[in-house]
Amino acid sequence: xxxxxxxxxxxxxxxxxxxxxxxxxxxxxxxxxxxxxxxxxxxxxxxxxxxxxxxxxxxxxxxxxxxxxxxxxxxxxxxxxxxxxxxxxxx
Length: 91
Known about the structure:
transmembrane helix, membrane, elongated, transmembrane
């Protein structure tokens, strides 16, 4: 997981340095590139809302709720980081 984070940030920095378009187009590119994380956050939020127990008297908190909440936090931070790195100028 650590290598995935480092690899993603490294890729975003490379994209930021390679960009040669206008500032407004940079923001569009940053939002388009990070929109995957927004979509994934919505999917995870939907799964959290519709979470049901597999069998009666099951505690869904440990496996479902905590995992989904942490996943939502991770994808939200990834969206903010990706948009910040790719959407704003390298100066």
